[in-house]
């Protein structure tokens, strides 16, 4: 998808998965157009929407804008598969991700590109604003990144990289194998784990809130178990990677298992499901046994999820 763009634009493709996003997609696209440094292209992947999402995006495709807009349509396969389509379709050296219900502040790309240059980074991220109706809070991701000399352990434990804050080398994410579409949750957390664990890879998280993350009412009880199961799959897949980042990798793995169980228990309790809450807590001893028995001298087994993918407009 080649396009001509101004000299002030960045060598960046913006990838936006969208599903039933008619009420928010224009806000997201307008926030890209408001950037002080514009991207080369914006790729929206409509994930089988049944509302007016495609119609709204096509209006931007037809408009005269400083950067090119493209729309890719696919059946409903999930955000991970949609991001993979965008990743393969992109032409730029760098890719940036934005969810259809989020928005960027005007300096987001400018500051991200400057930070990448300063730190010779392959991936950068930053703090963000969490907007819940009329309430807004500042989420400090950089503080976790700066907690210790090797930030991998804290990311493994807490997952402080938010997708709509990321700008990354396209080649890095291609080499890592893209997003795992089989995961029902945590696809972004899992790919960032795979990316930042690669040899000689550099990443940086800086302390500026340049993305506004809009909370949507999707935290229903049925999704708690999906998130828990996905988090457990990711834990065991990437457990061996801790060998190169911690003297006590099994202890870190157990800490992550405890976080998963506690978060699930709290979510169930908030939904009034006391049985689910107790079950989540009682799973922790099982994870302790499994982690202590795990073979830590094996490579991380991660397929290439981009193999066989095709992207068409």
Task: Summarize the topology.
Blueprint: E1 12-18, H1 25-33, E2 41-47, H2 53-62, E3 68-74, H3 79-89, E4 94-97, E5 103-104, H4 108-119, E6 123-126, E7 128-132, E8 135-139, H5 141-145, H6 152-158, E9 167-169, H7 170-176, H8 187-196, E10 203-206, E11 211-214, H9 221-238, H10 249-270, H11 274-282, H12 284-292
Helix pairs in contact: 6-10, 9-10, 10-11, 10-12
List its salient traits.
four-stranded mixed beta sheet, 2 domains, globular, seven-stranded mixed beta sheet, Spore Coat Polysaccharide Biosynthesis Protein SpsA, Chain A, 313 residues
Question: Care to describe what's here?
Answer:
About 40% of the residues lie in helices and about 15% in strands. It is of the alpha/beta class and about 325 residues long. The strands form 2 sheets. Strands 3-2-1-4-9-6-10 form a 7-stranded mixed β-sheet, sandwiched between helices. α10 packs antiparallel against α11 (about 275-280) and α10 runs antiparallel to α12 (about 285-290). The relative contact order is 0.13.
